[in-house]
Amino acid sequence: MKRAQIIALVLAGGAGTRLAQLTKSIAKPAVPFAGSYRLIDFTLSNCCNSQLDTIGVLMPRNPFSLPDTIGQSTLQAQIYPLHPVSWEQGGYSGTANAVYANIPFIEQFNPDYVLITSGDHVYKMDYRNLLLFHRERNADATIAVSPVPWSQTSRFGIVSAAADGAIKEFNEKPLHADSNLASMGVYVFSWPQLKQQLEDDAVDGNSCHDFGRNIIPAMMSQAKRLFVYSFSGYWRDVGTVEALYSAQMDLLQNPELLSLQDPQWPIYSLETAPTNKSSVYSNVNRSIIFAGAHISSQATIKDAIVMTGARIGPGSFVERAIIGPYAVLETGSIVRGGEPGYPPVAVIGENLVVSANMVHSY
C-alpha cells in the first residue's frame, strides 16, 4: 500500500436505538437526510474535500443497508469498508475496540496521524486545519469541540481547556457539567501514541473500550499532550429523533447555516435517488418532501419530513413528524407531535402502514 501521512477512520456501526423506528432495518449513518443525502455523506464528503484519500469505514452489522451502498460512492477518495471478523462472536465491543481490531489495516499505510470521526453527524469541516493545529502543538491527541446548550451537556463528552487549548478536564456525559464545550467525536491522534493506547486498553479487563470513557481519560492520567480545536461552524449530532428533525428544519428555515449547494465544498450523495419525482396534490407548509413521495389530495402536511416513497392518503393530517421511507398513511390518518399528550416529534418507521382514520402519535 502507498504510504499516507494521515488516514481517516469513520465509526459507522452505531445501532441508532435512540432514532426509534427509523433504524430498525438500516444503520444510523444510512438514515436519509434533507431529501437527497444520508447522514454519512457529510463525513465522507468532509474527508474528500479535505483531500484525505484513504478512508476506512467501520461497518455496521448486516443486513443494514450501509455495507451495500458505501462502495458505490462518487467521492474521489478510496473508501475501505471494514467489517468485524465475526458478528457471531459479538462484533466490536466499543469504539476503541473497533479501531484496535483494524490496526493491521492502519499499519498498511504507515501513517503519522489517524483521524477518527463519526458517520452520523451533520457538519462541514476542513480536516486539514484540524491536522495543522495538531501538528503545530506537537499534540498526542486533538479533540474538535463545539459549544452546546447547557441543557444538553449530559449527552456529550464535555471538555474544559486552558487558554492555550490544553485540555484540563474531560468528562463523558456528566450529570453536572462545568463547561459546555462538547466533544464532536472528531479526533486526530499521532498514530504511535494511539496504537500504544489501544494495545494497553485491549488487555484492560475493566475497560469498556470506548474513546470517551477510556482512551481519552487514560491519556489525561498519563499527562499526554491533549488539546481542543474549537469549531465555530454548524454542527449537529443527530443521534435522537428530536435532533434529526431539528437539524433538517434548521436547514429548511435557513439554508445558509450549512449550504448543500456550495461548489467549493460539495456534499456528495451516496444515495441512489428514485427516478420518479415527488407528487404533491395538497397543502404542504414548512416541510421537506423527498423524491418519490406521494401526497394525496386534501391532505395537510405541516412542519414535517416525508421520506422517499412514502404515501400520504387523502384527508390525512401530518404535523411535526417524520414519515419514514415507503410508509403508508391511509385515508384520514392523523400523525402529529409537539403538543401536550403527544411526543416532541412523531415517527412512522420505514414500510409501516397507518390504518385509515387512525390517530398515530409515536
From TrEMBL:
Residues 8-253 form the Nucleotidyl transferase domain. One of its GO terms (molecular function) is glucose-1-phosphate adenylyltransferase activity. The keyword Nucleotide-binding applies. Its EC number is 2.7.7.27. Keywords: ATP-binding, Carbohydrate metabolism, Glycogen biosynthesis, Glycogen metabolism, Nucleotide-binding, Nucleotidyltransferase, Transferase. Residues 282-333 form the Glucose-1-phosphate adenylyltransferase/Bifunctional protein GlmU-like C-terminal hexapeptide domain. Pfam families: Hexapep_GlmU (PF24894), NTP_transferase (PF00483). CDD domains: ADP_Glucose_PP (cd02508). One of its GO terms (biological process) is glycogen biosynthetic process. InterPro entries: ADP-Glc_PPase, ADP_Glu_pyroP_CS, GlmU/GlgC-like_hexapep, NTP_transferase_dom, Nucleotide-diphossugar_trans, Trimer_LpxA-like_sf. SUPFAM superfamilies: Nucleotide-diphospho-sugar transferases (SSF53448), Trimeric LpxA-like enzymes (SSF51161). Belongs to the bacterial/plant glucose-1-phosphate adenylyltransferase family. This is Glucose-1-phosphate adenylyltransferase. It comes from uncultured Sporomusa sp.
